[in-house]
Amino acid sequence: MQVHVADHPLISHKLTVLRDERTDSPTFRRLAEELVTLLAYEATRDVRVEPVEVRTPVAAATGVRLSEPRPLVVPILRAGLGMLEGMQRLLPTAEVGFLGMIRNEETLEADTYAERLPDDLSGRQCYVLDPMLATGGSLAAAIGFLVKRGADHITAVCLLAAPEGIERIERELESIGVPVTLVVAGVDDRLDENGYIVPGLGDAGDRLYGVVD
Ligand SMILES: O=P(O)(O)OC[C@H]1O[C@H](OP(=O)(O)OP(=O)(O)O)[C@H](O)[C@@H]1O
Ligand SMILES: O=c1cc[nH]c(=O)[nH]1
Ligand SMILES: [Mg+2]
């Protein structure tokens, strides 16, 4: 897996405020959105375009436009929803599919409770949004859904990753055979005994939307 850790002082600054336990939900949501827009710039570096001719008020010009089929953005609910608007700001014509997943806090395995994706993803560039890549179970399951529908170009956009999660995705990708790129604002030290990223930022879903039992 190609791992791209975004290295920019504005990204580091926003990530630090996001980590701070004193940051309230409205600020957390706004910062997550801003961060994703910066990461999306990096993540879409290889978005497919095709040549196009336009006329300026002065002369003919050759440029590019996004190719069809349009890219597909897939936020993993719940926390990935907090990244959607930031991504759409850069890719307003992308289509959006949804995956709802909840990690079982005992087994740490991801359980999928919702899936709304196009049937055929062949030739589509897919951008998966999930702020936290912890054990990697949720992202691995998401990649599985996309590959089953024919996706062969997948980019994961995350705010934070743990080395254990990156290693798991790399292991699983060996048998899947589809290249995946990860664009992330930071790779932290490790997971704790509850599968939380250390130092991380806590539970991203709860910090965005509050605690739901
Ligand atoms: O890499 P993993 O070990 O799978 O953990 C990461 C997942 O855990 C969190 O979701 P959670 O299950 O808390 O659901 P939520 O977004 O609804 O809070 C997070 O948003 C990721 O989807
Ligand atoms: O650190 C973590 C791990 C999983 N899910 C989160 O929201 N945070
Ligand atoms: Mg959560």
UniProtKB/TrEMBL annotation:
Pathway as given in its UniProt record: Pyrimidine metabolism; UMP biosynthesis via salvage pathway; UMP from uracil: step 1/1
Which cofactors are reported in the record for this sequence?
A: Mg(2+)
The record's CDD domains line, in alphabetical order, gives: PRTases_typeI
At which positions is uracil bound? Answer: 197, 202-204
Q: Any idea which positions bind 5-phospho-alpha-D-ribose 1-diphosphate?
A: 78, 103, 130-138, 203
Do you know which Pfam families this protein is assigned to? UPRTase
Q: How is its activity regulated?
A: Allosterically activated by GTP.
Catalytic activity of the protein: UMP + diphosphate = 5-phospho-alpha-D-ribose 1-diphosphate + uracil
**Keyword annotations of the record:** Allosteric enzyme, Glycosyltransferase, GTP-binding, Magnesium, Nucleotide-binding, Transferase
> Is Acetylation included in the keywords of this UniProt record?
no
Cofactor: how bound: Binds 1 Mg(2+) ion per subunit. The magnesium is bound as Mg-PRPP.
Q: Which InterPro entries match?
A: PRTase-like, PRTase_dom, Upp_B, UPRT, UPRTase/APRTase
SUPFAM superfamilies, sorted: PRTase-like (SSF53271)
The enzyme's E.C. designation: 2.4.2.9
GO molecular function per UniProt: glycosyltransferase activity
Domain (Phosphoribosyltransferase) ranges: 5-210
Q: Which NCBIfam families match?
A: PRK00129.1, upp
- What does the similarity note say? Belongs to the UPRTase family.
Which HAMAP family does the protein's record reference? Upp_B
Q: Write out the function statement from the record.
A: Catalyzes the conversion of uracil and 5-phospho-alpha-D-ribose 1-diphosphate (PRPP) to UMP and diphosphate.
**Identification of the protein by name:** Uracil phosphoribosyltransferase
Q: Give the source species.
A: Aeromicrobium alkaliterrae
